[in-house]
Amino acid sequence: MTSPADQGHVAAAGDVATLDPDEARAPAGRAVPWRRIAVITALIVVAVVLAYVRSGSGVVVVQAVATGVLIGGVYGLIAMGLTLIFGVLDIVNFAHGSFLALALFLTFGLAQAGLHPYLALAVSVPAMFLLGVLVQRGILAGAMGKPLENQLLITLGISLIIENALLLFFGANPRSVPLPGDRGVPIFEAVANLSRILAFVGALLLAGLLYLLLQRTRLGTAIRAVAANDTGAQLVGIDTRVIYAVTFALGTACAGAAGTLVAPLVTIEPTTGALFNIVAFVVVVLGGMGNVVGALVGGLVIGLAEQLGGIYLPGQSPLLSVFIVFVLVLFLRPQGLFGRSA
User: Fold this and answer.
1) What secondary structure letter does DSSP report for 91?
2) Mean pLDDT across the chain, nearest whole number?
3) Does any domain span residue 47?
4) In sequence order, what E strands does the chain have?
5) Distance between CA atoms of 129 and 252, rounded to whole angstroms?
6) What is the pLDDT of residue 27?
7) For labelling alongside 243, which of 61, 65, 72, 184 has CA 20 to 30 A away?
8) CB 176 within 8 A of CB 116
9) Count of domains in the chain?
10) Residue 254, exposed/middle/buried by CB under 10 A (0-12, 13-18, 19+)?
């Protein structure tokens, strides 16, 4: 018989919009953190104003904001897959960026065969979903419940295997995937490439579909129940092995979708996924571990920080401003922007 505590955990999982176990135990109907959102928005406005003062050019600031928002949406999609895996399986997946790199090369191959780069989503997403199922069931299932370092080493090993396999088969020469009809599109006083806009719109649509899946379907309810309490979920008849495999596959499919979306924007190399992996981990921790919505918001914040940092600190790596924001958030709010205190 299910204990009252387990029943409470499973019931709560059906009513909340997060995979953070602490969040999942919150009462149903908990108010949206409008104050937190307002503070984040106010800080972004202040950062934009200071960037204008620093540069003295409204065009430069508008361009930075537009570029930051557009790339931030893609960061959010990548981080949503990563945080989904952590929230349910409690695994820190170091292979996430390598799955993205694999999707980049898959998109490149399909584009070389004559397929439109973004139509490659119809191939890359199912392919990466299937790969995620195989990896979870064939490799990671045995590490469930084992010490954290075991899981870290396994996912790191998977990452190294993928990167070196890509290097072996494709070589180290950089490649690119041009988007047919790509052109500059005016946005207020800024100009953004059509490929960047399409990547942003695609990322938001896929993120919205993932959110609806988690919130409005029986599968999503089961996923959130397992995230809240896997033992309680088993007691009410949920096959946690299937949920683990599907969840990991969904996270991997997010990486695959992001890889296809950014293919026209980046130089494709076996190690390209490593940079996205770093940013994704920053976004996940920034938004709150296991919080899907926090990952999307965190992606937008990091995208803006990356671009505005080029105004504040010209000539420096874009990652410098990203890690400055990251360290400040960890110092002021260690659980992340949308996480809950332990």
Assistant:
1) -
2) 87
3) no
4) 184-187, 190-193
5) 6
6) 34
7) 72
8) no
9) 1
10) buried
332-335 contacts: CB < 8 A, separation 24 or more?
335/288, 335/289
Residue 20: what pLDDT?
54
Sign of CA dihedral 129, 287, 97, 240: negative
3-state secondary structure at position 192: strand
What is the C-alpha R_g of the chain? Answer: 20
- Does the pLDDT value for residue 226 go beyond 50? yes
pLDDT value for 105: 96
Specify the amino acid at residue 237: G
- Quote the tokens at residue 179: 């988007």
Name the pLDDT band for 337 (thresholds 50, 70, 90). confident
Would you say the C-alpha torsion 174, 177, 182, 186 has a positive or negative sign?
Answer: negative
Structure tokens belonging to residue 205: 């649509």
- Residue 199 domain-assigned (yes or no): yes
Say how far apart CA 225 and CA 11 lie, in whole Å. Answer: 8
Q: For residues 81 and 246, give the distance between their C-alpha atoms in angstroms, rounded to a whole number.
A: 12
Give the mean model confidence (pLDDT) for residues 149-175: 92
End-to-end alpha carbon distance in the chain: 29
Question: Between vectors from CA 240 to CA 239 and to CA 243, what angle results, nearest 5°?
Answer: 95
Burial (CB < 10 A; 0-12, 13-18, 19+), residue 237, is exposed
Predicted pLDDT at 164: 95
Residue 225 belongs to domain spanning: 61-332
Is 259 a domain residue? yes
Measured between alpha carbons, how far is 258 from 277 in angstroms, rounded to an integer?
Answer: 12
Structure tokens at 332: 């002021």
Query: If we measure between CA atoms, which residue out of 31, 32, 90, 83 comes closest to residue 229?
Result: 90
CA dihedral sign of residues 155, 158, 160, 166: negative
* β partners of residue 175: 268
Quick one: pLDDT at residue 288? 87
109 phi and psi angles, rounded to 5 deg: -65, -40
> What CATH number should be reported for the domain holding residue 280?
1.10.3470
Question: Which whole-number Å values give the CA distances from 181 to 145, 193, 195, in the listed order?
Answer: 50, 10, 9
Residue % of the chain over a pLDDT of 90: 60
